[in-house]
Amino acid sequence: MNLRGLTLNGKGALLVISWIPVAMCFNENVCYIAKIEGKSMRPTLNPNDITHTDWVLLWKWGAKNASNLHHNDIILFKAPTNPRKVYCKRIKGMQYDTLHTRHPYPKDVVNIPRNHVWVEGDNAFHSTDSNNFGPISTGLVIGKAIGVIWPPSRWGSNLSETIGREDARMNGIVV
Ligand SMILES: *[C@@H]1O[C@H](CO)[C@@H](O)[C@H](O)[C@H]1NC(C)=O
Ligand SMILES: *[C@@H]1O[C@H](CO)[C@@H](O)[C@H](O)[C@H]1NC(C)=O
């Protein structure tokens, strides 16, 4: 990364400092940097992939354990249909949740089995997600996206500001 000529405003400088402890833990098994491709997570990630693509910091430690995953976390996981493909989506349902699905899922309501999660892209119209391939095993999870680290203009992006469609869970409702 070439940092020459980079001007930081006060907010930018502050964020650089706040990222240092995170950068120090960099390790293939703990933290990882991943490039986000495509527009399925727009506007949260890659708001404009013509000018740039986002790189995110990924937290890998314990991410396959369902008790470390939470509703609305953004995760990277291996595609259930092709383990060489990696998807980045938001968790919209946890194990044991009951959810309203969306087209083209064959059923209107789905129960998420143990150690599975339901994932969707924030950009519903350009997303291949659980509505296509169903709930995914947490064993496919590679890590949790915890922040955008590149480009600098995207530092401090709040990954929870837009969360895709509203809560689709219907827990407690007998269907
Ligand atoms: C998953 O995480 C929970 C809570 O952090 C812990 O109690 C449990 O032992 C973990 N399971 C595995 C298989 O590591
Ligand atoms: C990010 O946005 C969410 C939803 O608007 C808000 O609840 C949360 O406090 C924000 N986090 C930060 C660090 O600003």
Keywords summarizing the entry:
175 residues, mainly beta, Umud Fragment, subunit A, two-stranded antiparallel ribbon, 2 helices, binds 2-acetamido-2-deoxy-beta-D-glucopyranose, serine-type endopeptidase activity
Characterization of the model:
It is found in: Mitochondrion inner membrane. Belongs to the peptidase S26 family. IMP2 subfamily. This is Mitochondrial inner membrane protease subunit 2. It holds the Pfam family Peptidase_S26. GO terms for molecular function: serine-type endopeptidase activity. There is one protein chain. With 175 residues, the protein is mainly beta. The chain has a single domain, classed as Umud Fragment, subunit A (Ribbon). Helix content is 11%, strand content 29%. The protein has a seven-stranded antiparallel sheet. The chain has a two-stranded antiparallel ribbon with strand order 5-6. The chain is globular. The N terminus is likely disordered. One 2-acetamido-2-deoxy-beta-D-glucopyranose binds next to loops. One 2-acetamido-2-deoxy-beta-D-glucopyranose (NAG) binds next to loops.
| Residue windows where pLDDT falls under 50 for at least 5 positions | 1-10
The tally of structural domains comes to 1
Bound molecules: 2-acetamido-2-deoxy-beta-D-glucopyranose
Distance between the termini: 53 Å
What share of the residues lie within helices? 10-25%
CATH topology: Umud Fragment, subunit A
User: Mind telling me which CATH architecture this is?
Assistant: Ribbon
Query: How would you classify the helix and strand content by structural class?
Result: mainly beta
State the order of secondary-structure elements, H for helix, E for strand. Answer: HEEEEEEEHEE
Major β-sheet profile: 7 strands, antiparallel
The main sheet orders its strands as: 1-2-9-3-4-7-8
- Mean pLDDT over all positions: 84
Strand fraction: 25-35%
Report the C-alpha radius of gyration, rounded.
Answer: 17 Å
Please provide the count of β strands. Answer: 9
Shape: globular
